[in-house]
Structures are given as C-alpha cells and as structure tokens.
Amino acid sequence: MKKCIIYIIMCIASLSLVSCVDVDEYDNSPQGNFEALWKIMDEHYCFFDYKRQAYGLDWNEVRARYSKRIDVTMNSDQLFEVLSEMLAEVKDGHVNLSSTGDFSRYWSWKEGYPANSSDTLYRRYLGTDYKIASGLSYRIFDDNIAYVRYESFLDGIGEGNLDKMFINLMFCQGLILDIRDNGGGNLLYAERLAARFFNERTMVGYMQHKTGAGHSDFSSLEEQWLDPSSNIRWHKPVCVLTNRGVYSAANEFVKYMKQCPTATIVGDHTGGGAGLPFSSSLPNGWSVRFSACPMYDVEKQDTEFGISPDVRVDLLQSDLLSGEDTIIEAARAILSK
What we know:
Elements: H1 30-44, H2 48-55, H3 59-67, H4 76-88, E1 96-98, H5 119-126, E2 131-133, E3 136-140, E4 145-150, H6 159-168, E5 174-178, H7 187-194, E6 202-207, E7 222-226, E8 238-242, H8 249-257, E9 263-267, E10 275-281, E11 287-296, E12 311-312, H9 317-322, H10 326-336
Parallel strand pairs: 4-5, 5-8, 8-9, 9-12
Antiparallel strand pairs: 1-11, 2-3, 3-4, 6-7, 6-11, 10-11
Helix pairs in contact: 7-8
C-alpha cells in the first residue's frame, strides 16, 4: 500500500528531531552563535512568507533588533534567553533551542485558550472497566456508542491492536475518537488510524520541500494521498474530538479526517503545527529544531495555525462542576441521529 507520506520521514513529533542541515562555520562566541542561528532559520525555515502575511513577521528586522542585545561578556544562560526569545518571534511550536540545561519552547498555540478538556472528566467517562489496545483506551457507552481515547501519537498502535478494537466495537452505532490534548508524535500512527475510516484512495492534502536558501524557494506542491486499510475498517459515523492541544501529527490526522465522508470534527480549533521539523547545531553544541517542509489541506490552505472543527463546542466551568463533558455529549447527540 502506497503511503501518503512515503517521500518524507514518518514522524512529525512534538519533542523529536527528524533531520539535519549543514551551515557555515561561525566562531563559538555570543555573536557567532547568534549569527549562526539567525542564518539557519533564514535559509531553512519554511513559514517566513506565510507569517509575514499572517502577522507581519520581518526576519531581517528581528535580526537587527536582537543583535543589539548580544554582548561579548554575556554568559551562556543570558545568551540562551536572548536566542530563545528571538526564535519565539516565529510563533511555532516546532521551533526549539536545546542546551544541556534548558529547552526553549513556544506554547502559545495552546496557552491563553480555553482548555476544553478535563482529566477528571476523561476518567469519569472512561470509568474503570475500559479496554486498552496499546496507545488506545476504549469502552462502549450505555447508548451503544463507542468511545476511544488516544492521548499521543507517540504511543504506538499496531494493525493487530486496531483489528481487535474494531471487532469489539463492531455492533456500536457510532464512534467517538477523542484526541484532545494529543500533541503529536509519529505520523505513521496517524496515517494508520485514519486509513481505517476510508473506503477508497483519497487525496488529503499537499506538501512542499525547501529547494534553496530564499524564503520562497520551494518545490511545486506534491499531493498527499491516503490509501484505505486492507484490514478491518469502520464504515459507520465517527466524531473526532479536538481542542487547542491537538498539534503536529495530531493536526495532520484531523486534516486527513476532514476528507472522510463519515467523519465530523467536534470541539475547538486545533493548535496547528504543519511543518515537518528538521534540526541543526550551533558552534557551542546547542541544537535548534525548526519547521522545514510545509504541509497544506486539500484547498491548498496552510494549517500551521490549526484547523477549525465542523461543529464548535466549548467545555464550560459549569460543565466541569456538573461532571458533564459537553464536547463528548455533543458528539453522542450527533451519532444518536
């Protein structure tokens, strides 16, 4: 079966590196490390044009502004702070700087937004008698609707796990697939799970590769196709539950499921993360990760800043107090029809 991501490394992870790039040599000094980091991003980061349009990012202006803060007398902690703040200007959760003592991160793609999830409610709805199939936890509600919780695409799922789960759920009238707060992981698992809901080969989006050092130097758009699984498939309605914590490979999964005729996306806007991450090193040995290959939906729209649900539902404080997950209940209402 031809994989829709066969021409890329099979992992968009929230905390892993996938490839490396070479850069010119710079002095191992505050100025040298600053210049090396700025140039790595300038030549290899893939969303400069998009983010200039989205919120006016000017990478040359960023260099001019942050270079004033670089001083030969600054220590490593001070340098790390300045470089981390510079990287945060691109507003990308896949852009990180790693040292022996710290890891910079940009989490505003989910911070500052309603959580629309609750560990207490997850436990309440799953109960204690749920089944576990590797990274999947599932049970059948009293109204004969299946509930499946997948917390992270870092947790592996095999074809045997999926076969057994769908056999156990085969008499249910609908399925709720809850991936809220799934921050990504291995794209292979996202593709493997999505393939269980498709009955024919379907185009699910596009991607590009960087071809040069310029901000606009990319290959032509390459189609992403998803083949249906040759194993047991789910033919009934499915609701995919999302919130701002859905990122990276989980965001890609939602992009796939948007093209599934039997699927409805319920909940909140996803967090995004539509760039395949690559990595490189600075003269002092610090590692920088950045988005290098952009991916798009079938309308050729960038999903770097997330995907909107088909049905918007929020989890309110009053719902938490009453012990009811309104996002799950909305999905149950949809499937009960």
